[in-house]
Design brief:
2 copies of one chain form a homodimer. With 230 residues, chain A is an all-alpha fold. Chain A has one domain: Orthogonal Bundle (Tetracycline Repressor, domain 2). In chain A, 69% of the residues lie in helices and 0% in strands. The radius of gyration of chain A is 20 Å and the shape is elongated. Chains A and B meet through helix 6, helix 7, helix 8 and helix 9 of A and helix 6, helix 7, helix 8 and helix 9 of B.
Chain lengths: 230, 230
């Protein structure tokens, strides 16, 4: 595996640092990007188990040698692909969230942004599929994949905590527990949408979830019958 | 496929009606049951894609001919297994729910019963795994598998509706939307537990979810800051 870098949980684009001079480096980086983008789309469609290494190589249009120079195995490519797409995903989610002032609004913006992201680029579905499948099927990879899932939980619990400080979220809730439930709900909604509509009704399901979730954590300023804050 | 019955969405135990007289029928029924129970455990551990037909045959200890007499393919066995376990599952969930008087209590008992069921017999995990995987990987089976998922949604929405009639659940909620979100949440919780702890922390996650869910749908009799009914 020696020179095929960038496949571990090392700095993101370590693969660019090859020993072939600037031009070769640029081309290698370009090829690596092309492989990652192509693989994301294939994994998004077929999942990890449902995709073969030959299928991935064929989709990139590279000769086997060219492919193996970058990624020695399906597993290595899946890990790199997951990390790459998840970084982009967090970037998009956070920039959309930061358009809101209050943490509770940032929090409930996340599932909506997810809908936008999947609609603009369906290959993002590889993040959910790869992280769940890799952890279930390849237990030895859990330490490498878990951070991708926990980053999402942590992001959420941080926003719940800030929502409490800002007086919008019920103080008696445990932010970590809320975050785990919220992330699980969105994962389940994604699964159900994938199963029942090939993902087409994901947004409709998210839109049913968000107000219920908000009601379950928000301090109700109106009080009384639970018809939520005015 | 002719005489190997019981593999379609036909009456549950049609496979018992073979043409070999009562004794042969009993033995066939016994073998069929053994195959279903064995397969449920294997599918629960490895999922649909992660299990090979040879692995299933080996696990039953039958000769190939004896196995094929009952189930012509992995797909046929998976469908029968899903239907069989789901019937048992609904029976357990409903009998536990019916120990409570009010619909809202019946409703929130379901995830707790799920924990009991999985702890008593881990092979029940095949219900979730098979229904999700079959629908995602074998789109032509969606019409056969979807009812298993929708039965759970329907059961839930019926309880939400009755909870509204009994004055416990907020009248303005759409019971079908609540049910879809609730089922999705539990599916996601099961997935996260499977990924992060091999299922070991499923109960802890369910116990975080249930009060939040209850709060999101219940009429709060105390009113005010959302610390729920006394």
């Amino acid at each position: 595996m020696g020179s095929t870098t960038g496949i571990k949980h090392s700095p993101p684009q370590a693969g660019r640092a090859t020993h072939t001079g600037t031009q070769g480096t640029d081309r290698a980086a370009e090829t690596r990007r092309r492989i990652l983008d192509t693989a994301a789309a294939v994994f998004a469609d077929h999942g990890y188990l449902g995709t073969s290494l030959n299928q991935l190589i064929a989709a990139t249009g590279l000769a086997k040698g060219g492919f193996y120079f970058h990624f020695p195995s399906k597993q290595a490519l899946a890990l790199a692909c997951l990390q790459d797409k998840q970084e982009q995903w967090i970037g998009k989610v956070m920039s959309a969230a930061l358009r809101h002032d209050r943490a509770i609004d940032q929090l409930v913006s996340i599932p909506h942004t997810l809908c936008d992201v999947y609609e603009q680029d369906p290959s993002y579905a590889c993040v959910g599929k790869l992280s769940l499948e890799l952890m279930e099927r390849e237990p030895q990879l859990v330490p490498q994949v878990r951070p991708a899932l926990l980053a999402w939980v942590r992001l959420t619990s941080e926003l719940v905590r800030r929502g409490q400080q800002e007086g919008d979220v019920r103080a008696e809730l445990d932010p970590d527990a809320v975050a785990e439930v919220a992330v699980a709900s969105v994962i389940g909604i994604e699964k159900m949408a994938a199963c029942l509509s090939g993902g087409a009704d994901f947004r409709r399901r998210v839109e049913a979830f968000v107000p219920l979730f908000r009601d379950s954590i928000a301090i109700r300023k109106g009080g009384g019958d639970g018809t939520s804050d005015t």
